[in-house]
Amino acid sequence: MLKSEKLCKKKASLLLIGYLTLIGFSTCQISNRDQSPSGDPQFMDRQDFRRNIPVAGDENAFHNEEPADAVKPAVALEPAGDQEADYPLVYYPAVADALRDNQTDHEDAGDDDWNDAGAVQIILNGKTINISGKGAIADGSIVTITAAGTYILSGRLSDGRIIVSSDDKGTVKLVLNGVDISCATSSPVYIQNAGKAIIIVSDQTENHIADGASYVFENPDETEPNAAIFSKADLSLYGRGKLTVEGNYNDGIASKDGLIISNSNITVHAVDDGIRGKDYLVVKSGNIKINAGGDGLKSDHSEDADKGYVYIRSGTIDIHAGGDAIQGVTDVLLATGDFTLVSGSSKLQSSGKGISADVNTIIDGGNLSITSVDDGVHSNGSIVINGGSLLISTNDDGIHADSMITINKGNINITESYEGIESKIVTINDGDIRVVSSDDGLNAAVGNQGFGMGRRPPGPGDRGGRGGGFGSFGNCFLYINGGHIVVDANGDGIDINGSVVMTGGNLIVNGPTADFNSALDYDGYFTLSEGFLVAAGSARMAQIPGNTSTQNSLLLNFQSAQQAGTLFHIQTSSGKKILTFVPSKRYQSIAFSSPDLITGTSYDVFTGGRSTGSPQYGLYHTGSYTPGIKYASFTLSGNVTRLTK
């Protein structure tokens, strides 16, 4: 099979997942808004959903009967149709699982070690070079290294080059021991040929490498080298000294093979990409600062399915990029670390994502602060968040995947977004999640067509909450199995072009004030078996969980809108408090579901009044309530109760 074909299949894995759900849920119709198709609701066991994906032709794919403790590192889909069976399509639940199927990096034991014994000393003297030892030759201000070995460089080279051209299969180690190297017309450090190249920045030294704004090539058709540090071989960077790289022509640091950074202190300024490893870019530790006109950290091998990935094991990463801060043509894998990511040069730019991958974006932990013009965290395939802290402010979607988003844990705070969390299938198993959005808060829809970066605004006949382009196909899903979710949306609080299954967790929505949107909006069914839900918003299109639910729900529509900050209180007729909630926006409907809503019990509803407690996201968990106006009384007679007063 051609390499490009294999990569296409890997990229297609989660796109195929989205398509295949249409088979398993083809009976879910838009007209059936409050109930599932005949028979039991079609949803997966809450513990198994994140580990299982429907297989082509399996109409019972979401009826998982496997024991919950049967943990799998990854799930493989059999290729559909005439696809070759030797390349399964895989969804990965964690970074370690994805790494096993990506190309292993080139690091060997001892790569970061060096000593003076047997090393060649290269002393830079402005425009001349002195060499002590064998394996390197000088020609004016150019030194060419022709053999494997260790080379210690020190001094200043005002307009010269360090070229590695070794036919040996061994490793060339360049130890930067306080250098200032610049070249006006080409790459100052050029690894033209080597078995493997290693740059070690000596402790307690400062080193500076810079190229010019224009290169002169012997052949006008040549385009390489094109970075201040450029390697055609696998390249590793180590050492605790300080290295500053200025890529005035194009990239700062680039390898056409793999690139590893470990235990390094690197600052890069580049007119295009900051640091690029074609086969892969692996950051194992270090302190990295990048200011780039293009992408910050990047891997762009687009022909092999196991290449083109960015993996960050740990480190402190500070990136200001005109394009994407971190981009992998296949995967972006973050184990842990501290990240400050600023991406996109202006609000008019159509690109500039914080994190972007074509196949998988997986975040196991770390602290991330993302400010982006385009999506904060993006994947053309799937996104999995297993932990960490994410603070996201974006002009487009906070977290977007074309096929699937799974949140297993973590603190996620989306302070500004067009749509907060968006994918065809969204699963929330746990986590502390805050979403502020100018349109929908949680959106399950097909494709990448909402109104935002490069998207059209709603036209005549479009519903504002549909994002001006998403279709209502009934095969999109929101699963809430746990976690604490707070949504503040100007569009729909949750907008699901399909169905919702809630088996646990807490969902609080301060929804829209406009009547063409609603706090809860779904096209198929909403089955709620356990959890806490309160959603305040406009009344005209308000919805609640449907009659397939086993937990009771209430929808109260007011005759007139209530002002923001007006308390809403429910208690039993005997005075037991059930809910005290203060919406942050003007509201005319309240959707509420809780285990405390019991069939056959009588309840009183109040508006206004005051509580001695302190609200948390609008909810009063403690304190006593002084009644305002008694608005209604009712007796709960079934699992769906609607009141209009």
**Percent in strands:** 35-45%
Helical coverage, percent range? under 10%
Q: Characterize the largest beta sheet: strand count, sense, and whether it forms a barrel.
A: 33 strands, mixed
Number of strands: 57
Shape: elongated
* Radius of gyration from the alpha-carbon trace, in angstroms: 29 Å
Secondary structure tally, helices = 2
Q: Let me know the average pLDDT.
A: 84
Q: How many angstroms separate the termini?
A: 66 Å
> pLDDT under 50 segments (min length 5)?
1-7, 11-89, 449-473
User: SS-based structural class?
Assistant: mainly beta
Features:
33-stranded mixed sheet; 16-stranded mixed sheet; 645 residues; mainly beta; disordered N terminus
Q: What's a quick, concise take on this entry?
A:
The protein is mainly beta and 645 residues long. It has 2 helices and 57 strands.
Describe the SSE topology.
Blueprint: H1 3-24, E1 75-77, E2 89-91, H2 95-101, E3 120-126, E4 128-132, E5 136-139, E6 142-145, E7 149-157, E8 161-165, E9 171-183, E10 189-193, E11 196-201, E12 206-211, E13 227-231, E14 235-238, E15 242-247, E16 251-255, E17 258-261, E18 264-270, E19 275-277, E20 280-283, E21 286-292, E22 297-299, E23 309-312, E24 316-321, E25 326-328, E26 331-334, E27 338-343, E28 355-357, E29 360-363, E30 367-372, E31 377-379, E32 382-385, E33 389-394, E34 399-401, E35 404-407, E36 411-416, E37 421-423, E38 425-428, E39 432-437, E40 442-444, E41 476-480, E42 484-489, E43 494-496, E44 498-502, E45 506-510, E46 520-522, E47 526-528, E48 532-537, E49 553-562, E50 568-572, E51 577-581, E52 587-593, E53 602-607, E54 610-611, E55 625-626, E56 629-635, E57 640-644
Parallel strand pairs: 3-7, 6-8, 7-9, 8-10, 9-11, 9-12, 10-13, 11-14, 12-15, 13-16, 14-17, 15-18, 16-19, 17-20, 18-21, 19-22, 20-23, 21-24, 22-25, 23-26, 24-27, 25-28, 26-29, 27-30, 28-31, 29-32, 30-33, 31-34, 32-35, 33-36, 34-37, 35-38, 36-39, 37-40, 38-41, 39-42, 40-43, 41-44, 42-45, 43-46, ...
Antiparallel strand pairs: 1-2, 3-4, 5-6, 48-52, 49-52, 50-51, 50-53, 53-56, 54-55
